[in-house]
Amino acid sequence: MSDETSFLTPEVTSMPRFSGIRTFMRLPYEPEVQERDFVVLGAPFDTSASYRAGTRFGPEGIRRISSLLRPANVFHKIKPSEFLNGVDGGDIMVIPGNTEASHRNITAHVKAWAEKGAVPIVLGGDHSITLPELRALSSVHGPLSLLHFDAHGDTWDDYWGEKYTHGTPFRRAVEEGLIDPYRSVQIGMRGTVYHPNDLDEARKLGFLVITADEMREIGLQETMRRALERIGESKVFLTFDIDFLDPAFAPGTGTPEIAGFTSAEAQGMLRQLTDIHLVGCDLVEVLPALDSAEITTLTGATLVFEFLSLLAVHKQRTTSSSFSHSK
Amino acid sequence: MSDETSFLTPEVTSMPRFSGIRTFMRLPYEPEVQERDFVVLGAPFDTSASYRAGTRFGPEGIRRISSLLRPANVFHKIKPSEFLNGVDGGDIMVIPGNTEASHRNITAHVKAWAEKGAVPIVLGGDHSITLPELRALSSVHGPLSLLHFDAHGDTWDDYWGEKYTHGTPFRRAVEEGLIDPYRSVQIGMRGTVYHPNDLDEARKLGFLVITADEMREIGLQETMRRALERIGESKVFLTFDIDFLDPAFAPGTGTPEIAGFTSAEAQGMLRQLTDIHLVGCDLVEVLPALDSAEITTLTGATLVFEFLSLLAVHKQRTTSSSFSHSK
Amino acid sequence: MSDETSFLTPEVTSMPRFSGIRTFMRLPYEPEVQERDFVVLGAPFDTSASYRAGTRFGPEGIRRISSLLRPANVFHKIKPSEFLNGVDGGDIMVIPGNTEASHRNITAHVKAWAEKGAVPIVLGGDHSITLPELRALSSVHGPLSLLHFDAHGDTWDDYWGEKYTHGTPFRRAVEEGLIDPYRSVQIGMRGTVYHPNDLDEARKLGFLVITADEMREIGLQETMRRALERIGESKVFLTFDIDFLDPAFAPGTGTPEIAGFTSAEAQGMLRQLTDIHLVGCDLVEVLPALDSAEITTLTGATLVFEFLSLLAVHKQRTTSSSFSHSK
Amino acid sequence: MSDETSFLTPEVTSMPRFSGIRTFMRLPYEPEVQERDFVVLGAPFDTSASYRAGTRFGPEGIRRISSLLRPANVFHKIKPSEFLNGVDGGDIMVIPGNTEASHRNITAHVKAWAEKGAVPIVLGGDHSITLPELRALSSVHGPLSLLHFDAHGDTWDDYWGEKYTHGTPFRRAVEEGLIDPYRSVQIGMRGTVYHPNDLDEARKLGFLVITADEMREIGLQETMRRALERIGESKVFLTFDIDFLDPAFAPGTGTPEIAGFTSAEAQGMLRQLTDIHLVGCDLVEVLPALDSAEITTLTGATLVFEFLSLLAVHKQRTTSSSFSHSK
Amino acid sequence: MSDETSFLTPEVTSMPRFSGIRTFMRLPYEPEVQERDFVVLGAPFDTSASYRAGTRFGPEGIRRISSLLRPANVFHKIKPSEFLNGVDGGDIMVIPGNTEASHRNITAHVKAWAEKGAVPIVLGGDHSITLPELRALSSVHGPLSLLHFDAHGDTWDDYWGEKYTHGTPFRRAVEEGLIDPYRSVQIGMRGTVYHPNDLDEARKLGFLVITADEMREIGLQETMRRALERIGESKVFLTFDIDFLDPAFAPGTGTPEIAGFTSAEAQGMLRQLTDIHLVGCDLVEVLPALDSAEITTLTGATLVFEFLSLLAVHKQRTTSSSFSHSK
Amino acid sequence: MSDETSFLTPEVTSMPRFSGIRTFMRLPYEPEVQERDFVVLGAPFDTSASYRAGTRFGPEGIRRISSLLRPANVFHKIKPSEFLNGVDGGDIMVIPGNTEASHRNITAHVKAWAEKGAVPIVLGGDHSITLPELRALSSVHGPLSLLHFDAHGDTWDDYWGEKYTHGTPFRRAVEEGLIDPYRSVQIGMRGTVYHPNDLDEARKLGFLVITADEMREIGLQETMRRALERIGESKVFLTFDIDFLDPAFAPGTGTPEIAGFTSAEAQGMLRQLTDIHLVGCDLVEVLPALDSAEITTLTGATLVFEFLSLLAVHKQRTTSSSFSHSK
Predict the structure, then answer these.
(1) pLDDT in tens, F251-261
(2) Min Cα separation B196/chain C (Å)
(3) Which domain holds residue E70?
(4) ipTM of this model?
(5) CB–CB of D123/D43 below 8 Å?
(6) Which of C253, E159, E170, F10 could form an SS bridge with E165, CB 3.0 to 4.6 Å?
(7) Domain presence at residue E327
(8) How far is B219 from chain A, CA to nearest CA, in Å?
């Protein structure tokens, strides 16, 4: 099972990291759906953004700087490629301006990979893409727990009368029964809102909402304890909006909010998720045209590597009784 | 009629140009439709872009740097505010992702102003906005001549199956009878294409197409002579895509093509249009997030000022028998 | 009193935030002095900067990104427009190089609004502008308490022999009797200085000075407790220099100092000021040309919104006995 | 022979150009040497730069923006993929600081492809990479004609005592007998030099040198006539240093010189080369970190597409007796 | 006389150009006034700018990139250091906001060097600095001819009531008798103006004004012929405002105007000035904060090198009867 | 001993900080080796970088922004120039691509200054330069303690087979006996690695390694306590890689790692080092081309000023018995 070369080809291992075709971490590019432990997919759809556009270049930007990453995680003491067999599946076909067709493609594509057993890791694109991902994964796994890091709850009912935008996916997901809000958590909400009680709307839908202000009060450890308690043993979809981070750490995004979190805080929270059962995840709202020295895309890429590490740790644990590896 | 203060308020004339609220050239902001000689409107719609998005900030960017412009045109020896009474009408409501509703709003808004006698000068946004403008103006004026400066003909039939994108407006305009292609000209086409004969498609539709290569062969004087001959006495809509210019002169745009024209060449061509009967115009595809030192928005703003100057020269000539001014 | 439309016009509420003329938060533009609860004014004066120039574009930059802000504050659970009636008064006429005339204009303009009962919220410009603001407001309200967030005390006696620069306003303000230093606080001082005892100078003038080093020792809660104790019941002018923040959070400024504060820390401190009697405030030293992805201007705009929220909370409390609103 | 799908896969043709893994023009990625008409290779080596470093990201930058290019050339009325079967071969392994090993790898890699009949199109990297390319191709084809567009002759003997830098490759190439200077041309030299007679050195080596000043005197048509006369029927290596262009058109490079050429001029000159027998080419010195809105990389990518078009025209002509195609 | 080491120290000649302390072309730094053929001085004064500020960093920016320049001029076939003995005199003390004191210092400093026989080459700063330079040099040499390259005539009477700004120096210079307008030329005027006849004002003062439009009509050769005829044998001050260039070539400036000249055109015009008697020159309005990849500062530095080359050619000619050199 | 003018010349003290030739803090430039308390040297060598190149402009960038620094340290209540006599020695001659010669020059140059009693403060350049510095200083002082702040341990054995790169200096330093690893500390390691146990390698060599994760667990106070305990009374070389900081605080570097430290944390740690015996230090890996608003170079310059302050405090203490000063 440990096929190191599936992750980084021999050629690539010895080449300087600044060279080579930019797949995610220079994984093999495999556009054909196949049996794998995970697949990285791009969903360059940004039609639904309410302020700045341009996250369509998010997948490209994250892949580009992902070449800087080395293959092992020193915190988890693991090299994911020893436990996971994955590929970069390229980008899903989307059509600017045609939300319905784009979402349909995303659902179909993600579902096809999930049916082969692969955990899809999707690079956005704006946050509207999570809805079709959830349609795909809930059709395979049933209603999911949502673990949601973001500055915004994205549970508004509509934007300018539009029901499917980057500000509405999670209300839709509850309405469509794709997620179980009572086993779901939203973490990090902050910033100006439309009405003083905007965040209560998400709570009425059933979500556990832990705002940035609350997080600073109870601490990040306690935040994650509550989140994990909420999630329990259920199958989890992890969605990470890069604007969870402060604009100093992630300037390249469409609707930044000041007073956010550091990359160390974000990474630290993700690292506590070794016990969850992850069936899919995405990282969205990276907008390279406004980035500075690639710090936003680097953060995105590194957090995706943390997702991969979680999958590897999970795989290591679940296979350790019957399996031992040498390295 | 000559109301200098309508153009730049007294307060504004004496204030440093770096100060003040950014309407176009600090014109009065008048969102209500009213009788004026011209109105500047923003149409911040960029859903239809085929490569980079972000021209939704075009109107804001052009207005911002327009504060640098002084009120008189030394070439035409005219101060437009002495002959024209105009306002900045603000932005037209558009909805990202909803091309139909956005286009409907643009048509309604432009038509309302045109019915009051104002020449609309629209700041894009992507090139798809010209179609609803033409719908508005042809409903008021009948089928129009199109005078089109651009690197691309934008007469493709569809993009990814979509009929209404920034690559298709002029085929639609012909199909809908909004323009008379046989009195219309497309100038400046260049760059890579989908099929070797792509430009012949526009010619089949009836357009006179003068490519960048042809322009360099026959010269810019002859180019404009042919264009003016083609247009004749008809009512003209002038549409200017900023990518007519070389990316060195206009880096802030969505689908740049190298080997384009300089700002001096563009300005020089526009200045030969004093005899045309202009009923509307737009300047599109300015994408500020990719601009450098505001050179693209400055070019856009200055060319819009050339549009205004053409209107003023025309007004001066048509009113000179019954009117003389001192200044 | 609650006139929601005074804050964001109906048109604007339903329009995408990326559109529209850029007044502060798209408030109505009212250059004529009139009775209002508050007025936002720009003072684009940067002659007095000791290192980088360019804060003359600060008001424009802050207004531009303020379009991203939504109208409600989730921390204070308040929508300021329900309690406050305010406008954007545009920019005050300043003259580069002529400090005296510019300061005179600022004083006259701010005073005129203050006399109508409006709390002026001024966008700089360099920090020299606070002196003429204090002249205006102390003439209306008597000597004020100064609540000053900054990396620098700005109490030097002169710069290159010049008495009125962005490094000297608060010494002048004490000398002129505009503020009562014994009821005033300076918070956040750090960075290299001219003499090891530079900060003692401000203390000798009577100020309570809490340096960044001291803040890190006693904590931000205690810092604010001491500040509030110092201020007591007096009328307060709040001045916020954006370089209080670390350059990572606010790169667009003229004399940055490393080891500063985060936007979360700044916001958190401001939010504790609900009990002060604010008669004026400003936010200065934003230099957009050096900004990155508008993070500095966004921080500036959001902090100004926090100022507005403080005013609203204060208004809500002081009117609650005789007034109840439904929402 | 005409295998359209070899150039742009079906999937890719219908997908928006902003999506997909960035190989050059989204050609198939084939790291294994094989029989093809051409191969695009990256040589991300920048150790030898004398001023700014960073061209190691040139291949990545050119590939990235090449996604904007459409498949047909309207000037030559040709779609290269109908005549040529090519791939992106990825990057050649180079080692920063180890010129010898890097050059050896470049030679080996280029030679392997050339022996399979592929015309190598190499993306630099600094100009030192042309030497190992010439070693490879002259070993296959014998001494070559050099057609060299550049601001600098790169025929210095050494830099700081180093013999193999980006300022010396063509002196070395003559010394090693890789090129025949008497059938070679250097075009575009300008800028400050070390000694007033620096350019005479290249002439003494045998090169025809046409400086920028001379080009402006005799015209670009005559320049190319002289170049083609010089080259005659010989096998040609075409090397294009992006600093041939003016920094306004190509800011992203290491040793820019003002008073250069426009992209229209460069493209126009290349288009006159339909009769030369091209056995290899490269485009070097693109430095993305200093680019503005990708205009340098776009220029680089478009010029490489012109190289491809030349190969296609040549193929079309040489095969037209025995072959006719419909499209 | 030919002291090569005075220009570039031996150490510096052999060091990579990216290293070393940034004086202009790494000339020796000599703050003390002394006998030299020329001195490079910075005048980082930008108080008088009417739009963007920041040219105070112009001297620093030009010096920085001047390290890229090599010591010989291939057009004039001359290495200035063989004929000229010069230094970098550092910056003149200026005081932001205090135009009078700053101008007084500039006059004193420039005069002191001129009295020692040095031709001062001053790096701006905004264009107001030319007035105190002219005061200095006319006090030494008598009234001068002005050779002025610029987009703006800078002969307005005042700006916001201020008499000494970057828009007024040449009216003041005529009034003060520092220059003889009838032996002076202004070249390159373009852009929007305050009144249609603005440029006639300069003509009324006596200047020969050749606008950009006229230059394009008569050609650059004829332009320079007329300029040289006008100047005749008189002593000349050459002032070059970087906004003579198009913003594509010089984005880093304060009041850019589109439709300007290329760097090749500017360089070509300067190269025809070998016969003028130059007693001083400056290059102004470079604003590094808005530059792109240092193309503006590089242009500025290269044009200053052309100034130096003119001085060297002149020296070579005037000393050739009694002196011959070998190299 | 206290020679204030040796630090900032009188001229410079009174001049605006934005003016003057950019030596470090405008120290006198003295390329000749001489007796001084300290010397600032640039080592613009970046051949050995494994990802981005360009730190060759690090010394220039740090010097440039160092003009913003004022001469006194308010934390230590000291003005270093009162206790230290130092100069800027300019840049050491390096040769791109020739690691051996460059390192040899660095060793010779640093040794020469050290033998004169100067503490060398070297500005990188990439981290490979520390090895030749250690060779120089250990030859003068014997094996040293290393105090190493960095995101990476830089103790890999080789990179692509190369032994002398920016990832290998400290393994080489141990092998060559230049440092005593058992009295050395590495602080701040984080980021992805090649093998899960990469950091154990450094521990096997003898280093005390305190990773970023450990630092967050034990606190920064305890971190420094352990470091100081380790170092004891030995002679220390302090090396600071700017990527110790988070990319939000220091974007301009070659191999950034997210989840790093703030500038306040870095500064705070350095300030606890008043008791160490510092014989040399460097600050490396600053890459200005990727900086944002000079925040990275400003951080670098300020930390170097903290180094200087440590030297001054040490000097003050060691000389206080026989010396008292007033100021």
Answers:
(1) 999 999 999 99
(2) 39
(3) 4-319
(4) 0.94
(5) yes
(6) E159
(7) no
(8) 37
